[in-house]
Write a structure and sequence with these properties.
CATH topology of one domain: Immunoglobulin-like
Radius of gyration: 56 Å
CATH architecture of one domain: Sandwich
Strand content: 35-45%
Organism: Oreochromis niloticus
Oligomer: single chain
Low-confidence stretches: 4-19, 222-228, 279-285, 295-299, 316-357
GO cellular component, one term: membrane
Pfam families: C2-set_3
Number of strands: 21
Helix content: 25-40%
Protein name: Immunoglobulin superfamily member 5
CATH class of one domain: Mainly Beta
Number of helices: 4
Keywords: Immunoglobulin domain, Membrane, Signal, Transmembrane, Transmembrane helix
Order of helices and strands: HEEEEEEEEEEEEEEEEEEEEEHHH
Structural class: alpha+beta
Shape: elongated
Length: 357
């Protein structure tokens, strides 16, 4: 019997059977809480039942004639969607216990198995606040990425430029829940003001999680792309000088206000003196009242003495300007002249009037 034609027939039959079903994707990685989708496509429509299994346990049964067959044990997070050439299995709100094998079993024809990976996204943070340092100082930064599965990839960037892994260290810890916490320390030489980023990621993340902190460098003068960085120390010194100048101005204004408040009674007295001195007739020789005079003493005794002296001058001026005295003086002069011209034969007598000065 010729064996060669028989071997060819067996190989062609095996190839036809393997081509009966396609499962896509073969490997899928999602984050916890996301949806996972697998599509099972038979090569022909001559099949009876399709069974989906998760980690070897039946999850969903689909009939070619009746569609999805519901059962009390059906996982509510599972659903099937009819496609043009097959069926899609959808896992809503995936959890880490869903990780493992996903199998499409076309009863009596073929079965295919794919792999599902569920990852956990944690948090990342640079410890501490923004930093302030002098030039050429070494500044230490510490980053912590907690609650990740699997262990995340952690890296540093300074001014959007990746730092070489040889310049920082990394340590990792795994908890009982198989969650990883990764810490890293980076030392930066303070050359200019910068922003420092710590990034953590797993393969299911479209973009790494980032934590950013600022580094301000004091006493630097840089000109880069037409921009000048003003030194922080000079700015602080200028601000302090302006504050000191403002305090001095306020002090001088307060002192002048208090000085004016103290000398106000003396100014009132000087005003009275000037008013009454103008009323003195031209007979009084001498100087004028100095309106700009200011007593150096601010005691009550000096003010009182000045007040009573002014009152005496006022009384004196008032006495000299009594109208009847001026009239009598004028009258006495005329009488005196008449007395002198009176002829002796009339027997006139000389009368002399005296006015107190």
């Amino acid at each position: 019997m010729d064996i060669f034609p028989l071997l060819v027939l067996l190989l062609s039959w095996r190839t036809e059977v393997e081509a009966q079903i396609k499962l896509f994707p073969e490997n899928l990685t999602v984050l916890r809480g996301e949806k996972a989708r697998f599509t099972c496509t038979p090569s022909n429509s001559q099949w009876t039942a399709m069974i989906w299994l998760l980690n070897g346990e039946v999850a969903l049964t689909i009939s070619n004639e009746h569609g999805v067959l519901q059962s009390p044990d059906t996982n509510l997070n599972l659903m099937a969607e009819k496609k043009k050439d097959g069926w899609m299995l959808v896992l809503n709100n995936t959890e880490r216990h869903d990780q493992g094998e996903v199998t499409c079993d076309l009863q009596g024809i073929d079965r295919k198995t794919a792999r599902l990976f569920v990852q956990e996204k944690g948090s990342v943070k640079i410890l501490g606040n923004n930093r302030l340092a002098f030039q050429r100082d070494s500044v230490l930064f510490e980053c912590e990425a907690a609650g990740w599965h699997p262990e995340p990839v952690l890296k540093w960037e300074v001014n959007n430029k990746e730092v070489s892994p040889s310049e920082y260290n990394i340590s990792s810890e795994e908890s009982r829940e198989s969650l990883f916490t990764v810490t890293s320390n980076l030392s930066v030489l303070a050359a200019k003001s910068s922003h420092v980023d710590c990034l953590a990621s797993v393969s299911a993340l479209p973009e790494p999680l980032k934590s950013t902190i600022s580094l301000k460098v004091v006493a630097e003068v840089l000109e880069e792309e037409g921009y000048c960085t003003v030194p922080l120390a000079i700015t602080a010194s200028l601000s302090g000088f302006l504050v000191l100048l403002l305090l001095c101005i306020c002090t001088v204004l307060c002192y002048r206000q208090r000085r004016q408040a103290k000398t106000s009674p003396q100014e009132v007295l000087r005003f009275d003196q000037s008013v009454f001195s103008r009323s003195v007739d031209a007979d009084a020789p001498g100087g004028k009242v100095n309106l700009g005079y200011s007593s150096e003493s601010s005691t009550d005794a000096v003010n009182s003495e000045l007040f009573w002296e002014t009152r005496r001058q006022m009384d004196f001026v008032s006495f000299r300007k009594v109208p009847d005295v001026v009239s009598s003086s004028s009258f006495s002069t005329q009488s005196e002249s008449q007395a002198n011209t009176c002829p002796p034969e009339d027997g006139c007598k000389n009368v002399r009037r005296i006015t107190t000065v």
